[in-house]
Write a structure and sequence with these properties.
The protein has 171 residues and is mostly helical. The protein is 83% helix and 0% strand. The longest helix is centred in the N-terminal third of the chain and has 19 residues. It is globular, with a radius of gyration of 17 Å. The protein starts with a helix and ends with a helix.
Length: 171
Amino acid sequence: GDHVKAIEYLQKALYSDVVTFGPKHPNVAIRWNNLGAVWNAMGKHKKSICFCNKALKSSRLTFGPKHHSQASTLNNLGLAYRSLRDFDNALLCMQEAVEIAITFVGNYHSEVATGWQNIGLVWCDRGDFIKAIGYFEKAKNIFMQAQLLLLVDDTSRLILEAKAALGQGHI
């Protein structure tokens, strides 16, 4: 999509929400998070982290430390940190996102599976393919239960790639 247009519209919506509802309204946190996601998609990872941190702060002021909406923001933060190869922070954010998601949607939800898959990708980036495969398997099982077959296929591909990397001595 047109990321520049998305930024423009999201900034206008953010301004409107702050003026209309005030800075502690849930819509404000959502706008910050969405801006962070778009900046990350544009390769502006540090800017993404800044916006996602604003979203997280806003959401925590409104809802407290563990609200379902924060799982998305933490996942976006983790993705931005992963892009910067800051794997420790990526894992911290992604693991917290999964913990929050489990609290609100249970262990067997596609949101949780996506979180496990993202954590697996970080372990691949770190070169720990055995850990990665474990997380990919968890994700695949959830996707299978939910009958999300395209996601099962994607996760199966990630498992095969990690196993191939193991076979090539990338440990």
